[in-house]
Amino acid sequence: MSATTTAVPGRSGGGRGGPGPDGAGASSRIGWALADSWTMTRRELAHWARQPVQVLVGLVFPVMLLLMFTYLVGGGRGVDGDPTEFLVPGMLALTMAFGLESTMLAVTQDLGKGVIDRFRSMPMVPGAVLVGRSTADMLQSTAALAVMAGVGYAVGWRWHNGAAAALGAMGLLLLLRFAMLWVGILLAMVAGRPEMVSAVQILVWPVGFLSNVFATPGSMPGWLGASVEWNPMSATATAVRELFGNPGGATGSWAAEHAQLLAVLWPVAIIAVFFPLAVGKFARLSR
Amino acid sequence: MTEAIVMDGVHKRYGEKRALDGLDLAVCGGTVHGVLGPNGAGKTTAVRIMSTLLRHDAGRVTVAGLDVRERAGEVRRRIGLLGQHAAVDEQLGGRQNLEMFGRLYHLGARRAGSRADELLERFGLADTGRKAVKQYSGGMRRRLDLAASLITDPDVLFLDEPTTGLDPRGRTEVWDAVRSLVGGGTTVLLTTQYLDEADQLADRISLIDGGRAVAEGAPDELKALVGGDRIDIVLRDASRLAEAAALLGGPDLVVDADRRRIGAPAPDRMAALARTVRALEDAGIEAEDIAVRRPTLDEVFLSLTGQPAGERTEQKADTAEVAA
Questions:
Q1: Nearest chain B alpha carbon to A45
Q2: Following CA atoms B157, B158, B163, B165 in sequence, which dihedral angle do they give, to the nearest 10 degrees?
Q3: CA angle A162-A165-A170, nearest 5°?
Q4: What whole-number distance in Å separates Cα of residue B99 and Cα of residue B101?
Q5: Is the pLDDT score of B212 beyond 80?
Q6: What is the pLDDT of residue B1?
Q7: What is the span of the domain harbouring residue A67?
Q8: Which DSSP string do the residues of A186-209 spell out, in sequence order?
Q9: A11 and B76: CB-CB below 8 Å?
Q10: Does domain B229-293 have CATH number 3.30.70.100?
């Protein structure tokens, strides 16, 4: 790195820049990958600092849904126990899954801007743009989880199996969010037009309802209930209900009995497919 | 002198469309080279290939002596790019942008900050404070963009239509900034649709059309190719176009029936104007408008390729206005 600190503007004031991702040793390559990823994460945090209202809306919207389904719509059909205890974990899973659209929207907006071209013409680690996006989204979702859990507590939801199990449940929820993140990034790059984002925003709703978030599969027609149980979001919802000790409306099916396993397998499988696709697609953008 | 940029028979196609069709280009180190051509000529494609954003299908491209395909990472450390769209984060402030780019060039946090301050000062943006870039004027945004392209004092700077969409004041600002770079040893490759922009800034100009170079030379050499100043006459009555054309005579006459317009060479400018006015008056042909002007980009192409492309009509008006 250049140690020149002359104040004279012009060539002498520049500096070639430090070593780039290529031509450097493996350990410093990892070091730069981390540094670039942190710089890109800071960029997202700086966006938040400039748009606090938007950040607030992002946190309030899922809370609004939670309150709406608890008090207005009266979800929890077919559940054996307190409907609120059933609904809150479901809504947490739904919020994580719906993170797909906010990721997709953010990536679509970013790709439409010239700044991505500058990033790509710089000697930075290419994946850092995506890592910055995912770190920011995970931080946002963690905050959203905390806020919703707080509101859930206020409306009467509790966890009954201790803090460790509750943390495990939160981990499963964030794992689902992480999987949806890469789906969102890939979708944004493959079909990244604003009208496609609106289409996805509409489509997530039926997928959201075809789950056990609002009603137990047992209260649905047989074929529907069976397919609903295989929805990755249902697996996460059932698993976190178990871990929180909330009523789940057990059906005794294989999918319901192994919900915790599925709540890990589903997201891991989704990540295994979408993560390499998204990274590869980003490297080849507009080539 | 060594060549800072070489493109050798470069091809690039998008599906059926040939964006570059064997483009050759050689740019001497430390000079400003203009790449002039109409929309769709392949200018932006060429810049994106040279700046490692796009892969070419065939041919050889080196920048600062490095092959862009094989040593993209090293090329990226030696270039700066000013694209057609402002490549800065519009939600952030000017200093935030430059500091972020400095970090991504691996200058380290301290150096990135001090370099950002230097560049803001140099481009007259030091007093912008926390204001987000989206609140900047077009000229300010371009200057910040240019500053971002210069963070590492690149060996080669690409400017892709740097003044498109700017008002005359913004254009002057950018021109001044580009001129201030010249002499610092940086090689500048500038694409433009405007003949006068290339004329103002470039040491040499390549004319490209249909993805290949059709001419290359110093601005004066190219202007000589076109044959100097022209006179434009717009008639009131289209039916007398042929008569007027016969009256003016000479080779290299352009008759545009739709616009009731005749263009003719006018090497002696004012004398040609007086002669034409007299000739039309004597014949009793009424003219709506007569003007002497510089050759336009379209005429350069007309004289080099022998045919104006329909797509260029729009830009012709544009260019004529700027050149006038």
A1: B92
A2: -140
A3: 120
A4: 5
A5: yes
A6: 55
A7: 22-284
A8: HHHHHS-SHHHHHHHHHHHHHHHH
A9: no
A10: yes
Over residues A206-227, the pLDDT tens digits come to: 888 788 888 888 778 777 877 7
Every domain of chain B and the residues it spans? 3-223+301-323, 229-293
Instruction: Let me know if residue A15 belongs to a domain.
Output: no
Domain range B3-223+301-323, CATH class: alpha beta
Least Cα separation, residue B163 to chain A (angstroms)? 15
Tell me what pLDDT residue A213 has. 82
Which amino acid is residue B170, in one-letter code?
G
Q: How many domains does chain A fold into?
A: 1
Verify whether the Cβ–Cβ distance B92 to A43 is below 8 Å: yes
Residue B301 has a pLDDT of 64
Searching chain A, which residue's CA lies closest to the CA of residue B186? A11
pLDDT one-digit tens code per residue, B118-158: 999 988 899 888 899 999 988 899 889 999 999 988 999 99
In a domain, A11, yes or no: no
Please give, rounded to a whole number of angstroms, the shortest distance from the CA of A235 to a CA of chain B. 39
Read off the pLDDT band of B304 (50, 70, 90).
confident
Nearest-by-CA chain A residue for B180 = A10
Using the beta-carbon criterion (under 8 Å), do B73 and A11 form an inter-chain contact?
no
* ipTM for the assembly: 0.80
The DSSP annotation for B76-123 comes to HHHEEEE-SS--S-TTSBHHHHHHHHHHHTT--HHHHHHHHHHHHHHT
Instruction: Give average pLDDT by consecutive 10-residue segment, chain A, 287 residues.
Output: 37 43 66 92 94 91 88 73 88 92 89 85 87 94 95 92 94 96 92 80 82 81 80 90 84 80 93 93 75
Q: How far is CA B253 from CA A111, B133, B249, B291, B320, in A?
A: 48, 49, 8, 15, 17
Does B148 contact A118 at a Cβ distance shorter than 8 Å? yes
A2, part of any domain: no
Tens digits of residue pLDDT in B34-88: 998 888 889 999 999 999 999 999 999 999 999 999 999 899 999 999 988 888 9
- A–B CB contacts, 8 A cutoff, strictly below: 132
Q: How far is A28 from chain B (nearest CA, A)?
A: 12
**B134 close contact with A: CB closer than 8 A:** no
In a domain, A163, yes or no: yes
